[in-house]
Amino acid sequence: MGEAAVELLYGVPLLPLQASGAAEAAGCGALLAELKQLWGEIGKSREERERTVRELELECMRVYRRKVDEATTERALLHQSLAAGEAEIAALTAALGADSSPQLKVNTH
Fold first, then answer.
1. In the chain, % of residues over pLDDT 90
2. pTM of the model
3. How far apart are the C-alpha atoms of 92 and 70, rounded to whole Å?
4. Membrane-spanning regions, if any (predicted)?
5. Which of 20, 53, 97, 100 could tie 5 with a disulfide, CB 3.0–4.6 Å?
């Protein structure tokens, strides 16, 4: 069970992983507290709460996966563009008859 589930079900506060995420963690914490209170008021069972938290965690994972996939695609496009630019430089250098031995080395990681 994830940190969000622990906080929702057992009242253990979430600790922000990074200082920059403190505002987001506080916002999520407030929403989790509100959800917990609402669940208490409407009588949601422990099983229903756990199921809902699992659904929230899965949805969150899907969002993160989509963002990772988008960033991976963007990186691949940038590498492709860089390779095309390097090829163009090599072609221009060759056309000018210049020595192409000193080449640019680009970190691909």
1. 52
2. 0.58
3. 33
4. none
5. 53
- d(CA 109, CA 88) in angstroms, rounded, equals 22
Radius of gyration of the CA atoms of the chain, in A: 25
Burial class (CB in 10 A: 0-12, 13-18, 19+), 18: exposed
User: In a 10 Å sphere around its CB, with 0-12 CB exposed, 13-18 middle and 19+ buried, how is residue 56 labelled?
Assistant: middle
Average pLDDT of the chain is 82
- Tokens 């506080």 sit on residue: 26
Q: What is the DSSP letter of 14?
A: P
pLDDT at 46: 94
Which pLDDT band, with edges at 50, 70 and 90, does 106 fall under?
low
